[in-house]
Design brief:
The chain has 11 helices and 8 strands. It is an alpha/beta fold. Strands 1-2-4-3-5-6-7-8 form an 8-stranded mixed beta sheet, covered by helices on one side. Strand 5, helix 3 and strand 6 form a beta-alpha-beta unit. Helix 6 runs antiparallel to helix 7.
Length: 269
């Protein structure tokens, strides 16, 4: 395993590299993950077939991103840099949660170079109101200022949760991300970046179908964020898609997935 760094927009972007396989796999972690190093848990399952490059997204891991936001063009530059550094033209993409949305947003740009998609508990399988109905940027800035001291919101959501009016997943997300200043700042910056990651879900799915692009979905049976039924609906009619279910929630990365990837990749060799 090694760590590499390069510059985008005066920001120092890091990525973790591991594996000794001939094929290049670029892996995007989800929001709030530790960074690209989260995929090291899958080294046994991936490392024999792939060389894995897993970047730390802005405000995650070791990436130093001083800008107030990031966009799809930054991610295009990231993928282009890794592909050039690795001396590869063709590659595969993996994404966990938001990382899947990110790679699906990039897909049309690199469709003639991508051989397979690996989507782990993926965001981006259906339209989501948080992206489709983003408030104007000026309104988001106003809301962010009002949450510089978020105790009033934390108290409100505590009451809603006790009354059974707020799901546990969103309750935990708010408390975890607003309760600590560093996480709060990351959340606000990410929110200001979401305009670039609105996804045309059906056209993207149609592109996958037209190109007969192999796609593997790995989803948790007990996931309350990305429901299993979304994956079942998404792959219907796709000629080279398969859905594999793990006895997990949203955090599917771990020993069970590692073993499943090892088995699947052994079958491909």
């Amino acid at each position: 395993m090694s760590t590499h760094q390069f510059t985008i927009r005066d920001a120092a972007l890091r990525y973790t590299r591991f594996g000794a396989g001939e094929k290049l796999l670029i892996a995007f972690h989800g929001y709030g993950d530790l960074g690209g190093q989260v995929f090291e848990q899958l080294e046994e399952g991936l490392g024999g077939r792939y060389t894995v490059c897993a970047p730390d997204l802005p405000w995650h891991g070791q990436t130093q991103w001083p800008e107030a936001s990031f966009d799809l063009e930054d991610m295009r530059a990231l993928v282009g840099h890794i592909v050039r550094e690795e001396g590869q033209r063709r590659f595969e993409l993996m994404g966990h949660s938001f990382g899947s949305r990110l790679l699906l947003c990039l897909l049309s740009e690199f469709i003639d170079q991508v051989d397979r998609l690996h989507l782990l508990a993926p965001d981006g399988l259906r339209r989501v109101i948080a992206y489709d109905w983003l408030p104007p940027r000026w309104m988001r800035r106003t809301l962010i200022r009002s949450l510089s001291s978020p105790n009033w919101l934390l108290t409100l959501q505590e009451g809603l949760f006790r009354l059974g009016l707020q799901p546990k997943a969103s309750y935990n997300f708010v408390r975890y991300n607003l309760g600590v200043p560093e996480r709060r700042e990351r959340l606000f910056r990410f929110w200001m970046s979401l305009d670039s990651f609105r996804l045309a879900v059906q056209p993207t799915r149609a592109l996958i179908k037209a190109k007969e692009l192999p796609i593997d979905l790995y989803m948790g049976r007990y996931d309350r964020i990305i429901l299993l039924k979304y994956g079942e609906a998404y792959i219907e009619g796709l000629p080279k898609a398969r859905l594999q279910v793990l006895e997990k929630g949203h955090q599917v990365i771990g020993k069970e997935l590692n073993a499943l990837l090892f088995k699947n990749n052994k079958e491909l060799t």
